[in-house]
Amino acid sequence: MEIIPFTNMQSFSILLVSITFALCYIFKPKWQAKLQKAKQPSLPPGPKPWPIVGNLPELIKCKRKTSVSHWIHTFMKEMDTGIACIRLGNVHVIPVTCPEIGLEFLRKHDAVFASRPLTMASGVLSKGHLTTIFSPLGDQWKKMRRVMASEVLSQERHRWLYEKRVEEANNLVCYVHNQCRSGDGGGLVNLRVASRHYCGNMMRKLVFNRRYFGEGKADGGPGFEEEEHVKAIFTSLAHVYSFCISDYLPFLRGLDLEGHEKIVEEATMVMDKYHSPIIEDRIQQWRDGKTNEPQDLLDVMISLTDDNGAPLLSTNEIKAQINEIMIASVDNPSNALEWGFAEMLNRPETLQKAIDELDNIVGRDRLVQEYDFSQLNNVKACARETFRLHPIAPFNPSHVSVCDTIVGDYFIPKDSHVILSREGLGQNPKVWDKPYEFKPERHLQNCNKGEEVVLAEPGLQLFTFGRGRRGCPGVVLGSCMTIMMFARLLQGFEWNILTHQETIDLSQGKGVPSLAKPLLVVAKPRLPPNVYSLAG
Ligand code: HEM
């Protein structure tokens, strides 16, 4: 075979190609990285951050003038976006008002966004992040979540606690019935007190097997101790996720510039003052063998053991988790009741529909019970509509991401705080027709196909209990408490606006989600007298 020698030109060409390949090989990773960087999705839109402090100056300004949620929702509307990014210190806070994007966070990437921030308030309330809601992702959260979901709030436990729930529903009717006796034309009832009192009673009964820490009141109302207890719960709640500046600039912690730390510590001390003696005494009773059969949720927690037969929960864990149970249970149902009644009283036809339903399904010869709930779609639609329009908090508790992720074409860095907007989802004009109107009938559309109205909304069209790993394990109990309050008060009493008022003033309190003024209304019994004695 004849070998053809390379010409100089050919040799040069081969050399050139080889050098090009070699250069490509050497610099390929760098070029690829550059290309990838150019393609990498950006952060969601939002106000331009300042160096180091980010958007904290805007946050401080709006805290003084209106509220942080008002600022966030206003700029998101102006930008016409369902997801945004604010930088507070070096934390990326990601508010979401679009249900589809919300589902990407809590369904598709649920595992990534299942942690929580370590804030000042959550640390104080949970005695160093020992509890379920306030613990970041990790073994402590797994343990406490299992205790709550499988022991405290399981279906079986719910059935076990049935009689206690009935007792408190009856006490609510008795308490309001006693208020009716104050005048011929009915009695004045403060529905804020009645609803918060019912929720506080319920949780004290389920956890400690007692309604009162002190004597209570002769009319069935709250005594000083119960009022102080419920006030501490609401004070804690107001500060849990209140965009405390030092949560974003940790070097300011300890200075307590906004005074939040002192307030939260004092509120926690009030809860501890009532809870701790009962908890410590009960633990001793179990140790001494004086108690060995659970009577309430405190007993359940004390009696849990690990694989070696040792107590599963420490005294501190029990104390912290009980504080959290109180905080988790009282606010949502009572807030919904007060707003729901205010809205219904301004729409007499809606109120009448719910009452007619109760008369048709339950009648007037007995009090409505939990087993009636499946048939009370109108009543439940009123409660669900209230959760949509008047959520207790503007956002859900922050979910923190454990790694960098892409969501909805946006880059969400590790350690971002994702806050799903209860207001923004529930009042999203792209989802809801006339979003600012109270129209419970919108939830009844599928009832003729046999569907039941429920308060949970896993599709995130509104945000009641959330979903996924961090979703609320108290859906059944929370729904029962809410529906029972609506149903018993609608069935048991005729409700009227005060004579000097034309309608209920629906103004919201400044910077708080409740009605500006407690709802005062006139109640008159509407059932035969013997039915009320069944409750007493
Ligand atoms: C109508 C009543 C209630 C509503 C609307 C409600 C709503 C919520 C919401 C929105 C969350 C946060 C979900 C998230 O971060 O994505 C939550 C979490 C939680 N709720 Fe509820 N809740 C109610 C009642 C209760 C009750 C009665 C209990 C227990 C006694 C309870 C215990 C919890 C716990 C332990 C968590 C934390 C879950 C976790 O972080 O792993 N809730 N709830």
Automatic annotation (TrEMBL):
Entry keyword annotation includes Cytoplasm: no
Record keywords: Heme, Iron, Metal-binding, Monooxygenase, Oxidoreductase
The keyword Ubl conjugation is assigned to this record: no
A Pfam family this chain is assigned to: p450
UniProt xrefs under InterPro entries: Cyt_P450, Cyt_P450_CS, Cyt_P450_E_grp-I, Cyt_P450_sf
Gene3D superfamilies: Cytochrome P450
Cofactor(s) annotated in UniProt: heme
Similarity comment text for this entry: Belongs to the cytochrome P450 family.
Protein name: Cytochrome P450
